[in-house]
Amino acid sequence: MPTTVGSDGWGRILARSHHVKGLLRCLEGMSPCVWNVRHGEMHHVRLVRKSATCPPSGWFVPDGACALCARAPSTGEGPVRMGICVEVQVLGAIAGDVIGSVYEWHNTKSLDFELFSEQSRFTDDTVLTVAVADSILSGAPLVELLRQYVLAYPRRGYGGYFRKWVESGSTSPYGSWGNGASMRVSPVGFAYPTLEETIARAAESAAVTHNHEQAVTAACAVAAAIFLARTGVRRHEIQRELETRFGYDLSVSLEEIRPSYTFDVSSAGSVPQALRAFLESTSFEDAIRRAVSIGGDSDTIACITGGVAHAAYGTVPPEIRSAVLARLDPRMIEVVEAFSQRYGVSA
């Protein structure tokens, strides 16, 4: 049912209260919209971030945003007579990717760095993570969605072999041992009710392209870590399970890894390090900072760490969420919000 906002008949929002999903489903395309009951037709509005009453990651759907009524949008300053604040969700893996994007080719070995800059953007890690979430939601074959998403979001730093696979039109995997399957797997960790099913689904999602044993193992380890973290398993038990089941040595500290670590896109050379960053962390932000601080393939390492940290800490901090959302487009936000709602992923 629509949510009624205000008392003068103006502004009936086509969304469940306090969720953005419906706002992005407009009769005329994927942009926010409001139903003006005076005119009986759909009018476009813009989401204004943010009013004094909105949370840091909220977007405000203002009163008076109808161009046909010639009423200007609210400035969002001070009390607002009518409107609705919408809390939008984002996956921790995506936040890690956006934060790490600046440092992939300009590594830092410090924990003290700027989280966001004008150059911060989503990369292939985010695009393919959203594709996996979309596949889980819709049931569409992942092999098809991966290709569709790459064509929709070109020039996002895709690996050379993966790009050739997309261009070839092939539906067969190409034996990659890289970390590409691990960077996109986080939705699998949130979606399934048991550890065994999570691991099986992670293996399936990896083998679409990355069917090398090391790549499949790594994707399963990441998804398993997310499942264990979100189900309340203690950190030392997560470490023990990952070491026992997947054969990783997660005892090497970041302090030991950091000085000599260099760019490494292999699953074996980046996923254990990303998991270690989570194991040493004290908060979501601290986990991302630790992941970026070792250098190397920073966006992918932070993406992997971010997925597990989101599961463990239960949220992405509002300030980080807001900065990430500002860099995503409506299609991505719609998929992430729908996925989060269906699988109970908290903001």
Describe the structure.
The chain is mostly helical. The protein has two domains: 1-87, no CATH class; 92-339, ADP-ribosylglycohydrolase fold (Orthogonal Bundle), CATH 1.10.4080.10. Helix content is 46%, strand content 6%. It has 15 helices and six strands. The chain has helices at 92-100, 124-138, 142-152, 160-168, 180-183, 186-191, 195-207, 213-230, 235-246, 254-257, 271-280, 284-293, 298-313, 318-325, 330-343, and strands at 3-4, 12-13, 33-36, 41-44, 58-62, 83-87. Strands 1-2 form a two-stranded antiparallel ribbon. A two-stranded antiparallel ribbon has the order 3-4. Strand 1 (3-4) and strand 2 form a beta hairpin. Helix 8 (213-230) packs parallel to helix 13 and helix 11 (271-280) crosses helix 13 (298-313). The two termini are 23 Å apart. Residues 1-57 and 59-86 have low confidence and may be disordered.
Give a brief description.
The chain is mainly α. The chain folds into 2 domains: 1-87, no CATH class; 92-339, ADP-ribosylglycohydrolase fold, CATH 1.10.4080.
Topology:
Elements: E1 3-4, E2 12-13, E3 33-36, E4 41-44, E5 58-62, E6 83-87, H1 92-100, H2 124-138, H3 142-152, H4 160-168, H5 180-183, H6 186-191, H7 195-207, H8 213-230, H9 235-246, H10 254-257, H11 271-280, H12 284-293, H13 298-313, H14 318-325, H15 330-343
Antiparallel strand pairs: 1-2, 3-4, 5-6
Sum up the structure in keywords.
mainly alpha; ADP-ribosylglycohydrolase fold; two-stranded antiparallel ribbon; 6% strand; globular; disordered N terminus
